[in-house]
Amino acid sequence: MYQEIGKVEMNTYKKIGFTLAEVLITLGIIGVIAAITIPTLIQKCTNRVVETRLKTFYVKINEAIKLSEVDNGEKEAWSADNSLDFFNKYLKNYLKYMSVEDKQVKKDSNDWLLVKLIDGSGFLIDIYAVYDKDGNQTWKTNGGHFIFCPAARNCDKGNDYSKWGKSQFVFGYWPAGEVAPKYHANRGVEPYLNAWDGKKETLYTDQNYGCNDKAKNFYCTAIIRQNNWKIPSRYPHKVHL
Questions:
Q1: Residues 65, 71, 77, 78, Cα dihedral to 10°
Q2: Would you tell me how many other CB atoms lie within 10 Å of the CB of residue 2?
Q3: Beta-strand runs (E) in 67-162
Q4: What is the enclosing helix (H) or strand (E) of 78?
Q5: Backbone angles phi, psi at 206, to 5 degrees
Q6: Rounded to whole angstroms, how far apart are CA atoms 160 and 217?
Q7: What is the pTM of this model?
Q8: In this structure, how many other beta carbons lie within 10 angstroms of the beta carbon of residue 98?
Q9: Counting runs of H as helices and runs of E as strands, what totals does the chain give?
Q10: Which residues sit opposite 173 in a β-bridge?
Q11: How many C-beta neighbours within 10 Å does residue 123 have?
């Protein structure tokens, strides 16, 4: 009788066990599922960080400009010799930041200034001007470009179109209306909309400024802004930090 019970228990034990082959198959299935889902989860987390930092930058930089106007008058009348002069006059005392670095490589290039922020992001300022081959300034505005980088390490230079819409995002600042008055005059730092015809589809398809692999991705920031600072499902690029 005891032997029979022992046999039953042993048989039951054999039935609830797993063979090595079954374990390996299970692990393989788990590995395949993980390989499929983990990159998607990581990308979703990256998107959330980029979205949050984009919105925070937009709010903070325009708050700084409004505070500066109290002391320095209306922004439409501000004037600066270059990007560093602009920062020192109009932003330095109204914005929390870590460091400032001149990124102009040569005399006839854009006057990029890198500002690193306390959350690890950063932005490049270019108080826009045109230079000849000898470095002489032939035309300038009192505004320019702000290139925001959710991770400051990606702000190595401003005219790297391969990064725009991915790890760099373009804003325009022309409050006096020198460029794109319909979208930038009397405003602060806004997603770049120079030459936009007002059609949502053009933000994606424009041959020069559109958010696509064949253009320069100027309008990518505006697409995210118009979607309440959320990267839309049809957004054509993977963003990264």
A1: -70
A2: 6
A3: 99-102, 112-116, 122-131, 137-149
A4: none
A5: -55, 135
A6: 11
A7: 0.82
A8: 13
A9: 6, 6
A10: 144
A11: 24
Q: Is residue 57's pLDDT more than 70?
A: yes
pLDDT tens digit sequence for 139-161: 677 889 999 999 999 998 777 88
The pLDDT score that the predictor gives to residue 104 is 65
Helices (H), the chain: 2-16, 20-72, 83-86, 181-184, 202-205, 220-226
pLDDT confidence of residue 234: 96
CA angle in degrees (0–180, nearest 5) for 227-126-184:
45
Calpha distance 113→23 (Å, rounded): 57
61-90 residues labelled b (16+ CB within 10 A) or e (exposed): beebbeebbeeeeebeebebebbbebbeeb
Token pair of 101 as six digits: 């670095």
Of 178, 191, 195, 226, whose CA–CA distance to 75 is shortest?
178
- Predicted pLDDT of residue 225: 98
Residue 108 pLDDT class (50, 70, 90 cuts): very low
Distance CA 204, CA 175 (A): 25
Tell me the C-alpha distance between 217 and 220, whole Å: 6
Give 121's strand partners: none
